[in-house]
Amino acid sequence: MQLVFATNNQNKLREVQSLVPNHIQLLSLGDILCIEDIPETQPTIEGNAIHKAEYIKNNYGFDCFADDTGLEVEALNGEPGVFSARYAGPKRDADDNMNKLLSELADKDSRKSQFKTVIALHLNGQLHTFTGICKGEITTEKHGEKGFGYDPIFKAEGYDKTFAEISLEEKNKIGHRGKAVQQLIKFLGQQA
Length: 192
Known about the structure:
CATH class: Alpha Beta
CATH topology: Maf protein
Structural class: alpha/beta
Radius of gyration: 16 Å
Distance between the termini: 9 Å
Order of helices and strands: EHEHEEHEEEHH
């Protein structure tokens, strides 16, 4: 089975490739010569995932899946949420985003948060969605060199290390994207 993963993010691609069984050949946007940046114009995480999957299906004709992820912070009414990648501006700079978030939380008592990933799959003319959530909290400072995005300031429930301090294998077991991808893989296994 061949599937396009509609992302230009090499970190995400590596993370998902490590989870997908060998009988599924994962193609990147580069593999199908899609060089445009698919706009994330929808007001929800689910909407953006669906929009990206439909864009690839409608413009390139491939069965595909796309994801969108947001960090939802309780004390900030769910922000940055759908704007997580662009929280500190259009540059999509992870350090700027983390610094802004830490600043916004400086005077807040609660640091509860959750990562949410939604995967939208376009397969055989049908659309399916899968959601993975990882609850945790925002630390007061950055820790760790692994991972990407908000990983250096997010600690999953029951863990004393940030996502940037644990291995990719561990993150895939407990993390939001790993949970959504496991649902996707289970579903694909039932289609064989």
